[in-house]
Design goal:
- This protein has about 170 residues and is an all-alpha fold.
- It has 7 helices and 2 strands; from the N terminus they run H-H-H-H-H-H-E-E-H.
- The protein has a two-stranded antiparallel ribbon with strand order 1-2.
- It is globular and about 50 Å long.
- The chain starts with a helix and ends with a helix.
Length: about 170
Amino acid sequence: MEFGGFALSCLTIGILFGRLFWGWLADKIKSSKVVLALCGITMGLMTIALAQVTLDFPEACVLGIAFVLGFCSNGWAGVFFAQVAANSPANKVSEATGGADFFMFMGAIFISMGFGFLATYLNKDFQLPFYIMSAATILTGFLLFFLKGTKVKDESGTPVPQHRRDKEEQ
C-alpha cells in the first residue's frame, strides 16, 4: 500500500511540472492546439505503458510512468482553460470556462464508469479497458493536429480570433 501512495505522489508532482512545461511550450511555439495534441498522444502512450505493469514490474519504471502520466494527463488543463478563455466572448469568459469545466468533469465521471464497466464485463485484468481508453486519447490527440481554429473576419476581411474581435468592439 505504501508504494501506491508514493506512485500517486509521483503522478501529482508530474502534474505540477506538466502545468509549467505545457504552458511554457504553448507560449513558445504559439500553438495551444499542438500542445494539447502532444499531451493527448503522450497520455495515451503512458496509459498503454501502465497497462503493461505487473506485480514484478520494476518500481522505478512504475514511478516514471506515473510521473509522465501526471505530467500529461492533468498538466494540459492550464493550456486548455487559457484557450477556452481566449476564444470566448469578452463578457462570457467565466461562463465559457465554467461550461468547459463542467463537461470535462462529466467526462471524467463517465469515462471512469465506462472503464469500470469494461473491466468488469470484458476483461478482468484491466488491459483491454486501458487499451480502449488509450486509443480514444491518442486518436483525439491526432485529430487536434487537423482541427482548424475558428476565426471571424474583421472589416478588411482579415481573419481574427473571436476574443480579439470582442476586445476591439469594447
